[in-house]
Structure prediction request, 333 residues.
Amino acid sequence: MLRYLLLTLGLAVLGLLVWHIGPGNIYDAASRLGPGALVVILIPSLIMYVIEAYGWRMVLGPSAQSVPFWRLLAIRTAGEVVNMTTPTAYLGGEPLKAYLLKSYNVPIAEGAASVVIAKTTMTIAEVFYILVGIALGFWILGAGSSAGQSVAAALVSVGLLVCSIAGFVFIQRRGLFASILGMIRKLGLRIKSLESQEVHLLSIDQTIQNYYSHHQRAFYASIGVYFLGWMAEAMEVFVILYYLGGPTDVLSTISIGALAVFIKGGTFFIPGSLGAQDGGNLLLLKAFGYSDVTGITFALLRRFRELVWIGIGLLCLALVGKGAVRQAAEHQE
Prediction:
C-alpha cells in the first residue's frame, strides 16, 4: 500500500513541477533536440552498461570464461530492469542475475557470490564518485553558500554510507549469510525457506571468503572499472546540457552527475524515484546556475533514457530468460 502511495505522490510532484515551469517552455527546450541528439544522449549510458558488465566479469572468477561477454551484458541489463522498476533499494534484480548465470554452467554459489561482490565493488566506486562530486561542488559553489551547505549535508550522509559499506565488507569476510542466519536464530525466529537453503547459503559465504583471500587485486581492479562506469554518468550530463544550450564544463558536469547519483540513491524507497529524483535534479541544476526549464528538461531527458533501457532490459530478460528455461528443461530430460 505504501509503495503505491509513494508512487502516486511522486507522479503528483512531477506533474506539479511540469505545470509550475510550463509545459510550453519545456516543449520549446526539448523541441530543439532532433532524433540524432536523442541517440547521442543514449551513448554514455551504453558505455556505462558495457563497463559495468566488465566490472562484474572481473569478479566472476573462472566461470567468466564460459559466459560470452554479450550474454553477461544481457543478463546484467535484465537484472537492472528489475532494480529500476521495483522499490527494493536497487537490489531486487541481483538474485535474478545469479539465477540466469546457471544456464551457462556457472554454479549458483559462484554466481551469487559474484553478484554480492560486484554490488560491493560497484557501491564502493559509487561512494568515491560521489565524494569527488562533493569536493568539486564545494570548490565550484563555495562552502559558505546555501548550495554549499546542502553539499556539506550530503557529505555527512556519504560518511554514514562509507561506514555502512565498511561494515558490510567486514560481515562478508566473516560470513554474510551465516551472520544473517545466526541473528535470526538469536531472535528466536524460524524462516523455513532460509533454513532449507542453509547449505547453499554457507557455500556462497565460503566462495565470497575465498575470493577476498585470494583475489584482492581483481577486487580493487573491479572498483576502478566501476568508477569509470560512474564517470560515464558525468559524460551524459555534459551531453544533455550541451544539447540544451547551457554552459558546460567538465568539472561542473562531474559534480552534477555525482550529486544526481546521490539524490537517486537517497530516494530508493519510491518506485523509480519518481518525482523525488526529478525535483532533486531540478534543484541541483538551479544551484549550479541553470534555469528551471533547463533543470526539468534535463530531468525528463534522463527519464527518457531510463525508459529506453527499461525497454531494452525487458527484451534482454525475455531472451536470456527463455534461454534459461529451455536449458533447464533440456537438463531435466
Q: What stands out?
A: Residues 35-172+215-332 form one domain. The chain has one domain: 35-172+215-332. The mean pLDDT is 81. DSSP finds 14 helices and no strands in the chain.
